[in-house]
Structures are given as structure tokens and as C-alpha cells.
């Protein structure tokens, strides 16, 4: 009893974390299922069909590849545009700052159904043909803000003395940016790109409004939900989840190793600015 | 105001913000994109919401000034509107109760596990939103453990959870929980733990410390988390579609079917516009308290 009272908070926190993963466990377990009827919602018998024949159902892998392609293109563009905005916000003074902040904030709080509907209203009125291009346009639009927020946080957390030191050591603005600023912001940009890709890859509502006849992976799942989701979909989703989790955990691990190495360096050499600069 | 102040966040060292054309050039492409594909669509949405149908041709509309589109849409669909706000409100309340202990633990007790726990909070969104929602069909199934348990206690009016409002609220609570946890954590993490120690040293009970110190200091996170959970939950229609019945349709379902299936663009646009207006009121109330600089 005493143990529970002392660790109550920890126990509750752990339960909440477990709760977050329960549906994912269900998705993963059902990927090894051989459903009894057409709906894969309850356990029947073990089967590896979903995994060994992962492209076995028509449309599954096609839609998956379309989503990957849309994700990569829109992430690349949104990351560049968003990073530029983040630099402007942190490093420059300009007029219209609060309306700029608002225009970046609003896409993150507007319900997807409203963004999807209003963008479709624009395309319909312009008689712009719906398809992969309109999905990419939409995805860039709603991921830019998330990129800005992520990169901006990284830029603000940076010690400005590092750049000053570079300038004091006669590095020109270009060299300072190339060898000091960019390497320090890079993890933030990479994180923003990863976030952007996962938002794009998983987006359903906005895509559905602006897809025309294009079927992305989430749109495929939506359609399949009515007639039964094939086990292959569960297998692919589980695979994506595991890969994404590994990437993030690995980058966390590398970052903490690097931080420790850096701390050792600094403690050994008192003040040694070289430790902060990447080997060129 | 904010433009005049140098940014002093995080390191406490003043960075002089430069004023030059480069700033505008950096903003230009991204902000243009947002202006064309986010801001202008609201204008077309508004114009579409006032259009009048062409007699005899379904799906064809001409520019007009039919204010009655709004009153007609609201008269017909006010129950779905109300339901959206009620479901989203309840889900936001549950999310706050569930998220707070975890956010508190990560901020004050997690130690070296902090980074890992934050990854675990974000990780569920790497698995498909639709499939995670669909998985609740299995978890809340009629013969399932959870439904049986609540039935044993005679707590369910319909003897089931699936295809009722309970399932929709459960799904909404689950899906938007990370949006509550992260801002709460960000606010709690900024609290100096010595303030809590001081309160304990002055013989405040754990409950008093929470009520007088921790909770008020975490309020910015509570407000931000509430907004970030409530807004997407109000507009969501995936949970209502997959977990509810036709009795549990939310405003998102109505907008989607009117826009895509019935091709009744004016009605769907009018509803979207009203939804957006309601949300803008919420956002601006928040901004009046916090200013725009903390938004992004």
C-alpha cells in the first residue's frame, strides 16, 4: 500500500503511456490474423498472409507508394519554405510581425474539414483539376506551420555566442552560416522534416477533399473500412510505425551520445571553441 | 511591440535582430503559399456559401448573395453543431484529466527518461490515424472486456459502447491526447521545482500545493492544450463515422457529405464558415490573454 501511495503518480503515468499504445497493439496483432468474415476486428486464427504477401491485395501497395511520393515532395518543399520563415522570425525585424505570426498559427488550429472544404472551394471556382498536384499543394500548406514552429524552437535554443565566436575568428557571414549555424540547426530541420512527412503521409481529411480520383494510403483505408480492411494494411501500418519509431529512437540515442562527448571535451580543455565546430 | 524587442529566450543572451531586405525575402515564398492556399480559400469559401443553385442542374451554382443559405443550414443542422461541441468538450475534459499526471511526471520525475517518454507520447501518431481509430472497434466490441465490465456495473443505457456517443467520445479523447500532453508538459517544465519545495516546506499539504502553486503556474499549458484538443476534435468526423451510428453524426460529417456526395457546396461552405468563425472567437480570446508571439 505504502509503495503504491509513493509511486501513485508513476503508476498512473505508465498506465497513460500504455493506453496510448493499446490501439497500435491491436493493429499489430490483427496483422497476424486470418479474419473469419470480411471485417478484421476480432481474433480468429494465426496467419502470416498479411506479411508474406504484403502487396497481395490490389491497390494496397499502389496507394502506399502514392502516399510516400506525395509525402516526400511536399515535405521537401514545406521544409525549405518553413525553415526560411523560421530564420526570418528569429533573426530579422520586419513589419507585420503579428499578422505573420497569426497566418502561421491559424493553419495549426483550423479544423482539417474547414481547410479541406475551403481549398476545394478555391479549386472548384478556378476549375483547377483535382489530383496528386492539388494534394501536394494542400499538404505543403498545412505542414509549413509545423516546420516553422520546430525550426524556430531550435534556433531560439541556440547559444548566439557560438556564432559571435566564429565571427571573432574572422569567419565571414557565409562561412559562419555554413560551418556554425547550419550544423547547429540541422537536427531541428531534420525533426521538422520527419514531422512534416508523418503529417502528410497520414493525412486523410484534407486529402480526401482535394484528391479527385487519386487514392492515397489513408483514402484506401477509408474506402476499405466499409467493405473490410485487408490484413496487408495492418502489416504495412505496423511496419511504418516500427521504422519511424526506430528512426526517432536512434536519433535520440545519437544526440545524447554526442552531447556527452561534447561535455567531456569541454571539461578537458576548459574553453575550446573548436569542440563546437564540426570537422571540415 | 514584439518587433522592437530583441529575442532573449532560452539562453538569456541578447541577439540583435537585423533589419534588412533579407528578412522579407526569407518570408516571401512561404507566406505567399499560405496566403494563396490558406487565406484566399476562406474568401472563396465565403463567396461559395452565398451562391444560388442553377434551376434544374444539380451541382451547378451561380454567384449570388443568398444569406438564407446560412439560416437554412443552421436550422437543419444545429443538432450536429451542438453535438460536435458537446462531444469535443467532454473529450477535452477527459484528455485534460488523463494527460495531466503524465505531463507532470515527465516534467518533474522522469529524470533521464524524460526524452524517451516524450518520444513515446509522439510515437502513436506514426501509426495510421484511421487504423488506430478503427482498432477501437475491436477494443470496445460488444462481447469485449470493456463493454462487459461496464454492463456488469449496469452503466450503459444501450448495453453497448460501440455505435453510441460513448465510443465517439472515447475515440476523440484518445486521438487528440498528445495535443494535450505536449503543451501541458511545456508549461509544467518551466515551473521552478523550488517553488513547489517552498510550498511543502511551509507545511502546505500536497493538495494545497497543487491548487495554489502548480495548477495556476501550469494554466498557460492548460489553455493551449485545451484549444489544441478541442478545435480538431470539434471538426473531426472520422471518429463519428467509424465508431458512432447515424445518431452520432458531427458537423464534420455533414460538411463532408454535403460537399463531396450531395455537391451542395453553398450549404457545406456556410457550415464550414460558421465552424471557423466559432473557432476564431476561441483563438482570439486566447490571443487577448497571451499575445501572438507565443503562438508559434
Poorly predicted segments of chain A:
none
- Assembly annotation: heterodimer
Question: Largest interface by residue count?
Answer: A-B, 96 and 99 residues
Largest sheet geometry of chain A = 2 strands, antiparallel
Broad structural category of chain B: mainly alpha
Strand content of chain A: under 5%
Entry summary:
Chain A has twelve helices and two strands; from the N terminus they run H-H-E-E-H-H-H-H-H-H-H-H-H-H.
Structure description:
The complex is a heterodimer of chains A (280) and B (296). With 280 residues, chain A is mainly alpha-helical. Chain A has a domain at 59-229: Orthogonal Bundle (MetI-like fold), CATH 1.10.3720.10. In chain A, 76% of the residues lie in helices and 1% in strands. Chain A is globular. The mean pLDDT of chain A is 90. By secondary structure, chain B is an all-alpha fold. Chain B has a single domain, classed as MetI-like fold. Chain B is 69% helix and 1% strand. Chain B is built from twelve helices and two strands; from the N terminus they run αββααααααααααα. Chain B has helices at residues 21-49, 68-108, 114-122, 129-139, 145-152, 165-175, 177-189, 193-201, 206-235, 238-243, 251-261, 265-290; strands at 52-53, 61-62. A two-stranded antiparallel ribbon of chain B has the order 1-2. In chain B, a hairpin with a 7-residue loop joins strand 1 and strand 2 (61-62). In chain B, helix 2 crosses helix 12. The relative contact order of chain B is 0.13. The model of chain B is unreliable at 1-14 (pLDDT under 50). The interface between A and B is large, with 96 and 99 residues.
Amino acid at each position: 500500500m505504502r509503495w503504491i501511495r509513493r509511486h501513485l503518480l508513476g503508476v498512473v503515468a505508465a498506465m497513460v503511456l500504455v493506453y496510448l499504445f493499446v490501439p497500435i497493439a491491436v493493429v499489430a496483432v490483427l496483422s497476424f490474423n486470418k479474419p473469419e468474415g470480411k471485417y478484421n476486428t476480432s481474433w480468429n486464427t494465426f496467419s502470416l498472409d498479411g506479411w508474406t504477401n504484403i502487396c497481395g491485395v490490389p491497390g494496397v501497395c499502389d496507394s502506399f507508394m502514392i502516399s510516400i511520393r506525395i509525402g516526400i515532395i511536399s515535405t521537401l518543399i514545406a521544409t525549405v519554405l518553413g525553415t526560411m520563415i523560421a530564420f526570418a522570425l528569429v533573426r530579422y525585424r520586419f513589419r507585420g510581425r503579428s499578422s505573420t505570426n497569426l497566418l502561421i498559427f491559424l493553419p495549426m488550429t483550423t479544423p482539417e474539414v474547414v481547410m479541406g472544404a475551403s481549398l476545394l472551394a478555391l479549386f472548384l471556382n478556378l476549375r483547377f483539376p483535382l489530383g496528386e498536384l492539388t494534394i501536394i499543394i494542400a499538404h505543403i500548406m498545412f505542414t509549413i506551420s509545423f516546420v516553422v514552429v520546430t525550426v524556430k524552437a531550435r534556433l531560439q535554443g541556440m547559444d548566439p555566442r557560438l556564432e559571435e565566436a566564429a565571427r571573432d575568428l574572422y569567419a565571414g557571414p557565409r562561412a559562419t552560416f555554413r560551418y556554425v549555424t547550419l550544423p547547429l540547426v540541422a537536427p531541428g530541420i531534420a525533426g521538422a522534416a520527419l514531422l512534416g512527412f508523418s503529417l502528410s503521409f497520414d493525412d486523410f481529411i484534407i486529402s480526401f477533399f482535394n484528391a479527385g480520383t487519386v487514392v492515397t494510403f489513408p483514402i484506401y483505408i477509408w474506402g476499405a473500412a466499409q467493405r473490410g480492411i485487408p490484413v496487408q494494411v495492418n502489416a504495412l501500418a505496423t511496419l511504418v510505425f516500427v521504422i519511424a519509431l526506430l528512426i526517432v529512437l536512434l536519433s535520440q540515442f545519437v544526440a545524447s551520445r554526442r552531447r556527452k562527448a561534447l561535455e567531456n571535451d569541454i571539461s578537458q580543455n576548459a574553453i575550446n571553441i573548436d569542440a563546437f565546430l564540426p570537422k571540415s | 511591440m514584439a518587433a522592437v524587442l530583441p529575442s532573449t529566450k532560452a539562453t538569456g543572451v541578447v541577439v540583435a535582430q537585423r533589419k534588412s531586405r533579407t528578412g522579407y525575402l526569407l518570408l516571401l515564398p512561404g507566406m505567399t503559399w499560405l496566403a494563396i492556399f490558406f487565406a484566399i480559400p476562406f474568401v472563396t469559401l465565403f463567396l461559395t456559401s452565398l451562391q444560388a443553385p442553377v434551376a434544374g442542374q444539380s451541382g451547378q451554382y451561380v454567384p449570388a448573395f443568398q444569406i438564407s443559405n446560412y439560416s437554412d443550414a443552421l436550422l437543419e443542422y444545429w443538432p450536429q453543431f451542438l453535438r460536435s461541441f458537446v462531444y469535443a468538450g467532454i473529450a477535452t475534459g477527459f484528455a485534460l484529466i488523463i494527460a495531466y499526471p503524465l505531463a507532470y511526471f515527465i516534467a518533474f520525475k522522469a529524470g533521464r527518461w524524460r526524452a524517451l517518454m516524450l518520444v513515446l507520447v509522439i510515437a502513436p501518431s506514426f501509426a495510421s490515424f484511421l487504423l488506430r481509430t478503427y482498432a477501437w472497434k475491436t477494443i470496445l466490441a460488444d462481447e469485449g472486456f470493456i463493454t462487459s465490465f461496464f454492463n456488469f456495473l449496469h452503466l450503459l443505457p444501450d448495453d453497448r459502447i460501440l455505435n453510441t456517443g460513448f465510443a465517439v467520445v472515447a475515440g476523440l479523447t484518445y486521438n487528440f491526447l498528445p495535443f494535450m500532453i505536449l503543451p501541458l508538459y511545456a508549461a509544467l517544465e518551466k515551473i521552478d521545482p523550488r517553488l513547489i519545495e517552498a510550498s511543502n516546506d511551509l507545511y502546505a499539504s500536497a493538495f494545497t500545493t497543487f491548487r495554489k502553486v502548480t495548477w495556476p503556474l501550469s494554466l498557460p499549458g492548460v489553455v493551449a492544450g485545451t484549444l489544441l484538443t478541442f478545435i480538431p476534435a470539434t471538426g473531426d468526423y472520422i471518429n463519428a463515422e467509424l465508431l458512432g451510428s447515424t445518431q452520432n453524426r458531427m458537423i464534420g460529417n455533414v460538411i463532408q457529405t454535403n460537399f463531396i456526395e450531395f455537391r451542395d457546396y453553398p450549404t457545406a461552405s456556410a457550415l464550414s464558415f460558421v465552424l471557423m468563425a466559432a473557432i476564431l472567437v476561441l483563438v482570439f480570446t486566447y490571443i487577448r490573454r497571451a499575445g501572438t508571439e507565443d503562438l508559434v
